[in-house]
Amino acid sequence: MFLGLDLGTSELKALLLDRQHRVLASARAPLTVQRPQPLWSEQSPAAWWQALETVMDQLQREQPAALARLEGVGLSGQMHGAVLLDAEQAVLRPAILWNDGRSAAQCEALSQAVPELAAISGNLAMPGFTAPKLLWVREHEPALFDRVALVLLPKDWLRLQLTGEAVSEMSDAAGTLWLDTARRDWSDRLLQASGLSRAQMPRLVEGSARSGVIQPELCRRWGLPEGLPVAGGAGDNAASAIGMGLVEPGQGFVSLGTSGVVFVSGDHFEPNPAQAVHAFCHALPGRWHQMSVMLSAASALSWATRLLGYADEAALIADAATLDADRQQRAPLFLPYLGGERSPHNNPQAQASWTGLSHEHQRADLAYAVAEGVGFGLRDGLLTLGQGSAPPQALSLVGGGARSAWWAQLLAHVLGLRLNVHAGGELGGALGAARLGWLCAGGRLDEVCRQPPIEQRYEPDPATHQRLLERHRRFQALYRALHPVLHPASGSHDAPASQLD
After folding, report:
1. Contact 356, 333 (CB under 8 A)
2. Helical (H) or strand (E) element with 67
3. How far is 429 from 424, CA to CA, in rounded Å?
4. Are residues 326 and 407 in contact, defined by beta-carbon separation less than 8 angstroms?
5. What is the pLDDT of residues 397-426, one digit of tens each?
6. Which residues, listed in sequence order, are joined to residue 456 by a DSSP beta bridge?
7. Angle, helices 104-113/130-140, rounded to nearest 10 degrees
8. Is 4:14 a contact under the CB 8 Å cutoff?
9. Which residue in 98, 106, 359, 445 could disulfide with 135, CB within 3.0 to 4.6 Å?
10. pTM of the entire structure?
């Protein structure tokens, strides 16, 4: 029996997995985000621990026999957050989260101070990452910065409470901008640029390796075996990939949450920072992954649902699905940049638009354009991944697109590859964390990281794909034409057309 703990932004989830890959039980505890000022996003680590106590107390009441048989524990969690501790390991301030935007000026300063930043870390400096947050604290809270003895990522602070060990692992550490991602070790150069040193960093292990054991008093409280090992674990997307068995080169997934992610596993470090691709370590030794991120995916449909007066997203999709191929060709184009964009533009000023409207267009045409535009944004991201490698032939699909057969099929046509929906895909990082706990306890990779059964396959139709490629080229040209008009002072952020078309 194995326990996965997944610390998200909106909830903490626990999951019990047996050796037959069956989920015996799960528990959830909600979390809230504090926004004391514009652009700020914070949480109290104490709330994380309270949530963990809630889910563990529930499992202890409902599944005491399963907890007594646990063989390993794994951790997953939201990436990039900054938990600052003093010499007594007391929390100095609320944790600054991944979606906090206060450190844009510090990103620019860091990029100028370390021109080789992207080559070492595999990533551009963005406010979401951890290093710019520490530069902000050094500038705006200098007395507090001087007291920082240890910096931990969110799930690793939970590990400290569970095991007494200050440890992180490669996939989450790669999202700090302090990791030499190719070498899988802290970079003294990048730490120095943030006013930090290795002494203030946790020890690093691989995601499937032992990081410590649950403290005896907690084992007694929840009826756990003494000496229960805790795996290194993973950041949320890498953990989701482990949960779906996507660990070999070329395997990956498309995730449609608030944001959209295209994740592809690889066997070597392959950065592409010029197009805002994230190049991270995977949660297993000798593996890396690339990830493109668009900021408005399923959230664009939620926005359009409210704006166009639909009852819910399902009603919007149902209306969009009424368009035949001829009417789709005449639909307006939609740029989905409601809150700027990461991959491939790295342009926080990018804006959304419907373009090409006429008297003939109705609400369904606008709804279709939004669903299609999100697909085009994902295709832009897909084309930035693995430019030196063979493209994937299929990806798994999770999130909002997986709940709509029509949208999933449209995305398959746009991307030009098969999309598979797996059983249990909604379990996300908690399942991957449990599997890493299993590996830590001695499980074999081929035994543990199996792909769940495929419940649905969506194959692209070649003719439809070619028709949509023409609209995608117009979509790309539209962004390149509109950006300098809307933001003449900011310059162009376009990737070369040859890299995207």
Report:
1. yes
2. helix 64-68
3. 11
4. no
5. 987 667 899 999 999 999 999 999 988 777
6. 421
7. 100
8. yes
9. 106
10. 0.86
